[in-house]
């Protein structure tokens, strides 16, 4: 009875806690913790988990989506900060803040019942977490009700701890040993933050402080292991790298299990203030990488020097420190006192299928599998190569697959040699096993075809078109291939004989309800198959793969800038050319106008001269002789009134008057 009353009291205390602050909601860890809490009912972890609920939870591979407009009644209300303004507000958050002052941030913190500061991903947040817990501690007298402060730290603050037993290094550390922990040199600020948080929460009822030391976080979109997932998915390397010998043990936890631990801390408000959040696994770095390689990559690993880790662009210094740590840890308080609906309690390797499914869904990675069929010289290889680059797919050549399959079958059916003096007993059993192995291998190939082919592209063209294409190929390409005249004609004839309307491989895919995309390459009349590739991309759709890397984005931006500058230069050159042409045309028009003007002046002058001839003749005949004589006399005599003298002279000497 007393226990029930105690649980009821604790439940009442918990139900008052509804508003939760989490820093950097746009980061991997905080985002998933926030999303998890936004779908969790306050006080739900106080109830025991039934077997039916455990079975139901096993079927769930990821936390359900939540939106601020449609939250379950009684769930935590999530608010928090963002690292960049460009980041869209998470749909599960009630409020988000960016680049606000410390005064405004403190005001928002005081409005919350739970404050979670996650310092596992961004070391710059350690200083803000120290400020936040110190500022809240100064405001305790103004608290209306108890507040809970949770610092999500990392097990790297234990990285240099001395073994509990020098003779047995496999004994794991537990929460009870936290006073003996020794930090990694790069995590000094983290352990100082842990000590301050624990110190400020001592003997204070209204301010409960907790430290949760989390292992390497995985699950959902990947975390630190995302670099290995991406490398395996892209297929750019033949083997995934293992830094060092790979025997170091890495404490780890699924990010949603970490969120479950935090939920239990909020609900239970335990008396233990330092907790370790790790799963039950004892996986080494080699175990992690080998599992990723087998599940989604080349299936091989390669041990490389530790220094090579710094050449991996997707790994930060903190990430590398986590991957190289060698630490065995076990969480007792979480197991014995909390009710957690585990997502990956057994560890990463045991739950790789669900983790990989989460990863693909979170990253929206949906592999595209394309099978291209068609007669010789229709362009299968060239089109497959272009599509492989466009969709970032493996280009698997049929000839290589058949050769590998034949080699494996030969290895299976080759009789086992018996040493000299050996008995022949059991030969029939060995032969039966060999047949079964061969049949199993063939069934595996068939099953792979049925499950892997997603798009089937059937290319075709007339025999005349294919013959002409081969005849026009350069000698350097034809040499050493089956495109020589005799071999090509035999291959084409054999293909036509084996692929009739009643018997063709396309019928097999029709039975699997995979309907081929038919393209007649001959009708497109495109030697480079650009139109066929464009049509296939349109049918298949956009790539469902990783976006551009930072380098590819920079290259894309550089290419766009160059194209923009080239376009601007072309437009400028075109403008200058246009202006020059207009100026030349203007000068030509001016010269033509000037020439025409001179011509007009000349014609006018000639016209005036022609019109003035009779007048000149008249003057020279009747006026000029007498006038000249009069002028000469005027010059000789120089009268006082020359005009009157000249008039009188002309009047007296007028020839017509005489």
Structure description:
GO terms for molecular function: aldehyde dehydrogenase (NAD+) activity; kinase activity. Residues 551-610 form a coiled coil. The chain has 658 residues and is of the alpha/beta class. The protein folds into three domains: 2-363, NAD(P)-binding Rossmann-like Domain (Rossmann fold); 370-415 and 434-540, Rossmann fold, CATH 3.40.50.300; 550-652, cAMP-dependent protein kinase regulatory subunit, dimerization-anchoring domain (cAMP-dependent Protein Kinase, Chain A, Up-down Bundle). It has helices at residues 2-15, 28-38, 51-59, 102-110, 125-138, 188-200, 226-234, 255-268, 285-296, 317-324, 332-337, 352-363, 380-391, 398-413, 427-452, 463-471, 475-478, 485-498, 505-511, 521-524, 530-540, 550-637, 642-652; strands at 19-22, 77-81, 93-97, 114-118, 147-154, 207-214, 216-218, 240-243, 252-254, 274-277, 301-304, 370-373, 455-460, 517-520. The strands form four sheets. A seven-stranded parallel beta sheet has the order 3-2-1-4-5-6-10, sandwiched between helices. Strands 12-13-14 form a three-stranded parallel beta sheet. Strands 7-9 form a two-stranded parallel sheet. α5 (125-138) packs parallel to α6 (188-200) and α22 packs across α23. The longest helix has 88 residues, at 550-637. The chain is elongated.
In short:
Helices cover 51% and strands 10% of the residues. The chain has a seven-stranded parallel β-sheet with strand order 3-2-1-4-5-6-10, sandwiched between helices. The chain has a three-stranded parallel β-sheet with strand order 12-13-14. A two-stranded parallel ribbon has the order 7-9.
